Amino acid sequence: MYRQGNILYGYFSKPIQDDIHHFTIRELIDDWNREVNFIHNSETTWKYNENLQRHILGFFPSDILIESIGTKEITEYLAYLKREKQFSNNTINKHRTHLLTLFEYATRNDDRYGIVVNPVRKIRPLRHEPYAYKIYSPEEAKLMMRILHRTGKIELEAAVALALYCGCRREEVCGLRWENVNFERKEITITEIRTIAGREVVHHMYTKNNTIRVVGIPDALYDILLEVKEYQEMQRQRYDKAKPYEYVLSEDNGQPWHPSNVTMRWKGFLEHHKLRAIRFHDLRHTNLSLLMTQMSAIDVAKIGGHAKVSTTTNIYGHSFTDTVERGKKVINELL
Q1: Which of 71, 118, 168, 205 could form a disulfide with 9 if both were Cys (CB 3.0 to 4.6 A apart)?
Q2: What is the residue range of 107's domain?
Q3: Is residue 143 packed enough to be buried (19+ CB in 10 Å), middle (13-18) or exposed (0-12)?
Q4: Based on the domain organization, do 260 and 234 belong to the same domain?
Q5: Interatomic CA distance for residues 240 and 232, integer angstroms
Q6: Which residue among 253, 277, 301 closes a domain?
Q7: Closest Cα to residue 119, out of 25, 9, 15, 4?
Q8: For residue 276, with 0-12 CB atoms within 10 Å meaning exposed, 13-18 middle and 19 or more buried, which class applies?
Q9: Is the Cβ–Cβ distance between 191 and 206 less than 8 Å?
Q10: Are the C-beta atoms of residues 170 and 263 closer than 8 Å to each other?
Q11: Rounded to the nearest 5°, which phi and psi values hold at 126?
């Protein structure tokens, strides 16, 4: 006999015997996690995939059979994310891509699952929404740093300065060790990250794009880092620690900062001093946006650790306005 289904969407057509096991969406997800996700993806990636799966299983009953999920049902799920969860188009497209991956796995193993056509393929991705972020003007950034310095919160000042002056990501700030700070050459080498995967802190000996990059230390940051180093040495003696603190961002007992603490302390500082709220990551955007007004996209991509120059131009293309005008002026004068 044939499984019964919606012929309009045609997501299966293979003859199946009654004694064959019918798989649920939860079983498909468990199989894919065990055979693909946990083997081929980094811990950060498979934790992110698990987050997508929680939403999927929160919408579809966990015991629903995969042959009962067609294009119509998946379209309803994506509409639910937009309507009820108010997710952006870009986030909804990630859910679509994950469902596409799950059902692609099922079709490649059609002898096991009985699915021969991927129902997600008929659903077009939503229109990409330009990435929205806020940045500080140079005047705002200078005022914010003056206020932060007066608070005496030296390690928060270091975290903010690393993002604002060097364009470091939060996970790079949390993973920066003193051994990678060269005071003599005034350079920091970014080689590793400490980030959050699910509810756990994970440490990777590589950066987001598997690159090692060297960033110069501006004078203001140099002074801050020296002050942090001196403060930590005082705390080391106070807590009778045998070894110097390992991380630039360390608690008084020598343990590295939890990545969430960076975000919470930054947010608390802005709220307390009634400064315009931007995300901690937007300090990196401020840095790279300012660099784009004076440097080439290729150089900014290297400093920012972007694998592709197109990433830099797509995100910070608005910063080209002055560059375009200067280029036009040069050509007019020379030709």
Answers
A1: 71
A2: 25-122
A3: middle
A4: yes
A5: 12
A6: 277
A7: 9
A8: exposed
A9: yes
A10: yes
A11: -70, 160
Residues 146, 252: one domain?
Answer: yes
* Phi, psi dihedral angles at 197 (to 5 degrees): -125, 110
Q: How many residues does the chain have?
A: 335
**Beta bridge pairs of residue 181:** 188
DSSP at 19: T
**Cβ atoms 121, 100 nearer than 8 A:** yes
Indicate left, alpha or beta for 195 from its phi (over 0: left) and psi (-120 to 50: alpha).
Answer: beta
**What are the Cα distances from residue 3, in Å, to 21, 55, 68, 298?**
12, 27, 10, 55
How crowded is residue 230: how many other Cβ atoms within 10 Å of its Cβ? 11
pLDDT of 5 reads 39
pTM for the model: 0.69
Q: Domain ends where: 257, 277, 297?
A: 277
For residue 308, is pLDDT > 80? no
- The pLDDT assigned to 320 comes to 45
The mean pLDDT of the chain is 85
Task: Give the count of domains, the chain.
Answer: 2
Cα(263)–Cα(44) distance, integer angstroms = 19
Q: Which backbone phi and psi does 247 adopt, to 5 degrees?
A: -105, 150
As given in the structure block, the two tokens for residue 194 are 């400490």
In the numeric block, the tokens 């891509």 are attached to: 97
If residue 263 lies in a helix (H) or strand (E), which one and from where to where?
helix 259-272
d(CA 318, CA 330): 20
* 5/71 Cα distance (integer angstroms): 11
**What type of residue sits at position 58?**
G
